[in-house]
Specification:
With 190 residues, the chain is α/β, with parallel strands linked by helices. Helix content is 41%, strand content 17%. It has seven helices and seven strands.
Length: 190
């Protein structure tokens, strides 16, 4: 029987508060990466719970990927230019330009640097906003690059994913074709 989103969020809260999360999720010192997948229509409930957990636990650090992208573009005085460029050359062109600027395909990328620079040992890392950012960076790319920088079992990473994860592949919004990613653990069953 499929669990309700409220039941799954209760399970999430319980797992984040337990000490089990900081001990890793598998055999052989595998990375402590987890995915909380959910139906896109549950986005508001999930984001409310993310905010509640972060407010109640000081070691939870929330990184909204979309907000980080906007922040970096503003810092580089590129946000307004990208709007102008989009009108002249189209969305695909500007998205590729932003991807190059952010170095999204690199473990030294600007998004990865922002996340890594904002955590200390023992923090639990929540990643949100991947659905809003999917044209700039894919979840599997983000996680793969982040693993090269944050691979300590004492820093669990939880990606909140609007779609489905079957331990082998991610399908954004339950619509886009699945992209292989098999290093993360499914945090709460559906």
């Amino acid at each position: 029987m499929k669990k309700s989103i409220q039941d799954r969020l209760r399970d999430l809260r319980s797992k984040v508060r337990s000490s089990d999360l900081s001990q890793g999720g598998g055999l052989g010192n595998e990375v402590n990466y987890h995915i909380f997948d959910y139906d896109p229509e549950d986005e508001q409930a999930v984001m409310r719970e993310v905010a509640n957990i972060a407010k109640s636990l000081s070691n939870v650090k929330v990184f909204n990927i979309h907000d980080i992208i906007i922040e970096i573009l503003k810092e580089k005085n590129y946000l307004e230019k990208s709007f102008e460029l989009e009108q002249k050359k189209g969305s695909d062109f500007v998205n590729k330009a932003i991807m190059r600027t952010l170095k999204t395909d690199s473990k030294n990328g600007l998004i990865i640097e922002k996340i890594a620079g904002g955590v200390k040992k023992g923090d639990i890392i929540f990643l949100t906003g991947i659905g809003q950012s999917h044209q700039i960076i894919r979840a599997h790319t983000l996680l793969a690059n982040l693993q090269s920088v944050i691979n300590d079992t004492e820093n669990p990473v939880i990606l909140f994913y609007p779609g489905s994860y079957d331990r082998q592949a991610l399908s954004l919004f339950n619509v886009f074709p699945a992209e292989n990613y098999y290093r993360a653990f499914k945090l709460v069953e559906r």
